[in-house]
Write a structure and sequence with these properties.
Double Stranded RNA Binding Domain; seven-stranded mixed β-sheet; Alpha-Beta Plaits; three-stranded antiparallel β-sheet; 206 residues; alpha+beta; 5 helices
Length: 206
């Protein structure tokens, strides 16, 4: 299983808008490659209808290739849609991916079936396919309801707990500058692996 994260870091609203625009491009590329794309987590930006970070699950033979295409610093060249006459036209966001195989034993995790929340109508209210998982040693808790199958939601929950455990280990090893910190806060300006231009967010290489 591959998890891909897009993040605006500590950048301004324009960077969050870039992440939001990237969603459509990523979705289009996933369709072209036959990759299944599922949004697991999202952190909304301060500007309306924007996202500061997005976490996806990718599945399919070309998943790793797609994830690598979105790994690194990316640049959006555009006049600010929020601040008229603002001189800055370069906005940056970053992508990172990780591969996960089930290394944490199910014996270490307590699973609870629960009702889905949010959109879903009567189906969400009448089924208990959503899963809440607690890592017994650390208390890390996640809730997954993106799939109709409880079995698949358990699998995703385990992957998310693995991700949280990895972050915890990184923080213990390097408290001042963890890999998570680099992903969210240490976006490198320059040497962008991909460049998008204009309000239409066109790939500069296409």
């Amino acid at each position: 299983m591959i998890l891909l994260q897009l993040s605006a870091g500590q950048g301004p609203d324009e960077c969050s808008l870039a992440v939001t625009k990237a969603m459509k491009v990523l979705s289009k590329e996933a369709d072209e490659l036959g990759v299944s794309l599922c949004l697991l987590e999202q952190c909304r930006g301060s500007a309306k209808n924007t996202f500061k970070s997005l976490l996806y699950r990718l599945e399919g033979k070309q998943s790793k290739m797609l994830a690598e295409r979105w790994t690194g610093t990316m640049q959006w060249i555009c006049q600010s849609p929020y601040r008229a006459k603002h001189k800055r036209k370069n906005w940056f966001f970053t992508g990172s991916f990780s591969e996960h195989s089930p290394t944490t034993s199910s014996m270490d995790i307590k699973f609870e079936a629960c009702r889905s929340s949010g959109p879903g109508g009567q189906h969400a209210n009448k089924t208990s396919s959503a899963v809440r998982a607690v890592h017994l040693e650390t208390g890390i808790t996640v809730k997954v309801q993106s799939e109709r199958s409880q079995h698949m939601n358990k699998r995703l929950a385990k992957a998310l707990i693995e991700l949280r455990l990895d972050e915890q280990r990184q923080a213990q090893f390097q408290q001042q500058e963890t890999l998570r910190h680099k992903s969210h806060h240490g976006i490198e300006r320059g040497n962008a692996i991909r460049v998008f231009k204009g309000t239409e967010f066109n790939d500069a290489l296409v």
